[in-house]
Design brief:
Blueprint: H1 11-30, H2 34-47, H3 52-64, H4 68-81, H5 86-91, H6 102-116, E1 128-130, E2 136-138, E3 143-146, E4 151-154, E5 156-158, H7 175-187, E6 197-200, E7 217-221, H8 223-227, E8 238-239, E9 245-248, E10 252-253, E11 260-261, H9 262-269, H10 271-278, E12 282-287, E13 292-293, E14 298-299, E15 309-311, H11 319-331, H12 334-343, H13 346-356, H14 384-393, E16 403-411, E17 429-433, E18 436-441, E19 447-456, E20 466-473, E21 479-483, E22 490-496, E23 512-520, E24 529-535, E25 540-543, E26 549-553, E27 573-578, E28 584-590, E29 597-600, E30 605-608, E31 617-619, E32 622-630, E33 633-641
Parallel strand pairs: 1-5, 2-7, 4-8, 6-7, 6-9, 9-12, 12-15, 18-24
Antiparallel strand pairs: 3-4, 10-11, 13-14, 16-19, 17-18, 19-22, 20-23, 21-22, 23-24, 25-26, 26-27, 27-28, 28-29, 30-31, 32-33
Helix pairs in contact: 1-2, 2-3, 3-4, 4-6, 7-14, 11-13, 11-14
Length: about 650
């Protein structure tokens, strides 16, 4: 039996169960199976007793199974917990039979009142009052769990910036960058780090040097959070509702088949929450560890985003990037920083400043050179003098542009597992977020065609943007970018099959084609948004001259690493056959030491072929995971399940 959530900080281990129950509830609703709805919601309320939405679902289900008195009591409790949308409650057909009850009108009135006065609810999340720069504390009183996106939201109330910042809180860097920064703070034209928070999530293993940045306020986790490991998990599951945050976690999962850096874990665990951090002024740095080493498996990151920084190396390599972020924040003019914080643009703007201040960028247009956008950044490449000068030069009416990315068309992505590809994934989409879209090249078609649109974010009416689509890595002969018109705002991107891993401009073998979208207002570029296409290294494909798939050898590719969350290894080879019209009629599956097995075009295993005019006998095949032994220990492989 699953234990109920006894703390908001227990939610990460239970969120997968929540999503599973949501899926079951949706299926029950589609079938009008009210008894199943009631059973599912009853169980969910036991596990998530403080969640208002599950209690509301239970009220709806209890009404449908003919228990209106119980439903009214449950509905009232849902409202007190925070389900206060009185219009939705009044219009919900599941609650129709309750409307004749006088108590129902009272519940609606209470919902309306609690919506206007949330402090009256049974559980209220109140901001922690931060005494800068002492401590910002995270505990159950100021933290809630975002059921929709799967993460924590902690609230802080920070004092307004003083009219004159105390000199003991000035940022103090060595060298010329520090001299400039100190002079600007003394004259009042640099904001310093007053109100900036620092979130260390490796329990002090690698920390920023607060002697250089005494104005930073450290985030501290209460005992309840610590006992649930929230302070040592990587910041993929927490956001601070718009406060400016620099964070890091110099950690990695080093054992077992799911080994990975915290950076790779962040990119795969919950991309939507990374977007929330990016748009909430939060900037986190994680070392690459073993995920970007030619002696291990090369670049094994499955996607590319602007949401986090990945430092080159392992422990403590995150510090130079953290120092650069803190210095840039301190160098911003007070009015510019206030504008960025209120507009939730701190993270995107600093992303642009950091990448455009690399030492090997000599001309403005060098920002458009592929080598200027490494997925893994060496902090020593950042020119701190140029960075603080660029930050200090920003004014409220000359901020860098920002551009999002939207997929508006997709061709060639076959999506039927067990027919078009063989993995547990349900298609080729890996990430679909405003500033990062990623596809995994699974199906057998040789070419994919994607139609992508640049979406300017809050553009100034008097500014005309130019759009640059830059191939960061991949074979240029196999990537074609065709603009729809002279604005280059909408493009067709055609990508042919790449045998992975392949060489990149960074001297690191990778399996990921990357295209960066960068907007240009004539003064500043935007931070890059990314479209990436990931190719599977654990397979060898053969195509004909006219690009028809002839065969896929999975067995010989098993030794090449692919993240098991993306693709599982297989121990067979498939040889494809075609009918007279040129369509795939099936394939023959070959394993070493076994008789070949035939499959038809629908993915069914042929147990008796066509004989004497009789149709072939087939059986349906599903695919699942099985544990296998490897030189690195136990792992998973894909197997057939009849």
């Amino acid at each position: 039996m699953v234990a109920p959530a006894d703390s908001v900080f227990a939610m990460p281990r239970l969120h997968a169960l929540h999503r599973q129950l949501v899926g079951q509830l949706k299926k029950a609703i589609e079938k009008n199976d009210y008894r199943a709805m009631d059973e599912i919601a009853t169980y969910a309320v036991r596990i998530f007793p403080e969640d208002a939405t599950w209690r509301y679902n239970l009220a709806c289900a209890r009404t449908r199974v003919g228990k209106p008195r119980e439903a009214l009591a449950i509905l009232a409790e849902a409202v007190r917990l925070g389900f206060t949308d009185s219009n939705a409650i009044a219009a919900d057909p599941d609650l129709a039979v309750l409307r004749r009850e006088k108590t129902f009108a009272d519940i609606l009135a209470e919902a309306h009142d609690l919506a206007l006065h949330p402090d009256k609810r049974r559980r209220v999340t109140r901001p922690f009052k931060v005494d800068v720069p002492k401590v910002a504390r995270v505990d159950s009183s100021n933290t809630t769990w975002d059921m929709e996106n799967g993460g924590f939201i902690s609230l802080f109330a920070i004092q307004l910036r003083p009219d004159e910042m105390p000199t003991n809180l000035y940022a103090r860097l060595p060298g010329k960058a520090g001299e400039k920064l100190l002079a600007w703070q003394e004259e009042g034209t640099a904001a310093g780090n007053w109100g900036d928070l620092y979130d260390n999530l490796d329990r002090g293993h690698s920390t920023i040097d607060r002697r250089m940045f005494p104005g930073l306020t450290p985030i501290r986790y209460g005992q309840e959070a610590v006992s649930n490991g929230i302070d040592n998990m990587g910041a993929t599951l927490i956001t601070f509702a718009g406060q400016t945050v620099i964070g890091n976690s110099s950690t990695a999962l080093t054992q077992g088949p799911a080994w990975r850096s915290t950076a790779r874990n962040a990119l795969g665990q919950n991309m939507r929450y990374l977007v929330q951090q990016y748009l909430n002024n939060e900037m986190y740095v994680y070392p690459q560890h073993h995920d970007y080493l030619p002696t291990i498996a090369g670049d094994v990151f499955p996607s590319r985003t602007p949401y986090i920084y990945i430092s080159h190396g392992s422990s403590w390599t995150d510090r130079p990037i953290m120092n650069a972020l803190a210095a840039a924040l301190a160098a911003l003019r007070p009015e510019t920083k206030e504008r960025l914080v209120r507009a939730h643009l701190v993270a995107p703007v600093l992303r642009y400043l950091i990448y455009s201040s690399q030492k090997d960028i000599f001309r403005r247009t060098d920002y458009l050179v592929p080598s200027s956008h490494p997925i893994v950044m060496n902090g020593d490449r950042i020119d701190l003098v140029r960075l603080v000068e660029a930050a200090h030069s920003l004014t409220t009416n000359s901020l860098p542009p920002m551009v999002a990315l939207r997929m508006i068309g997709e061709e060639g992505a076959d999506k039927t597992p067990g027919v078009d590809y063989f993995d547990l994934a349900r298609g080729e989409a890996l990430a679909e977020t405003p500033f990062a879209i990623c596809r995994v090249f699974r199906g057998m078609a040789y070419t994919r065609k994607y139609t992508l649109e640049a979406m300017p974010v809050n553009p100034r009416a008097d500014t005309k943007l130019a759009y640059h689509w830059v191939i960061i890595q991949g074979d240029n002969d196999k990537i074609r970018i065709k603009p729809h018109d002279d604005t280059r705002r909408v493009v067709d991107v055609e990508i042919d099959y790449h045998e992975a891993p392949f060489d990149t401009p960074f001297g690191m073998p990778s399996s990921r084609v990357e295209i960066a979208l960068i907007a240009d207002d004539g003064t500043h570029y935007s931070p890059a948004a990314f479209f990436s296409c990931f190719f599977l290294a654990n397979e060898n494909r053969t195509y004909s001259q006219d690009h028809q798939i002839l065969g896929v050898d999975y067995a010989s590719g098993r030794s090449r690493y692919v993240d098991p969350e993306i693709s599982l290894p297989k121990d067979w080879r498939d040889i494809y056959a075609y009918d007279k019209s040129g369509r795939v009629s099936g394939w023959t599956r070959v394993r070493d030491g076994e008789e070949p097995v035939a499959f038809n075009a629908s993915g069914e295993k042929i147990v008796k072929p066509v004989y004497g005019g009789k149709p072939a006998e087939t059986v349906h095949v599903n695919y699942g995971a099985r544990e296998i032994s490897t030189p690195d220990g136990p792992s998973l492989a894909l197997v057939e399940l009849e």
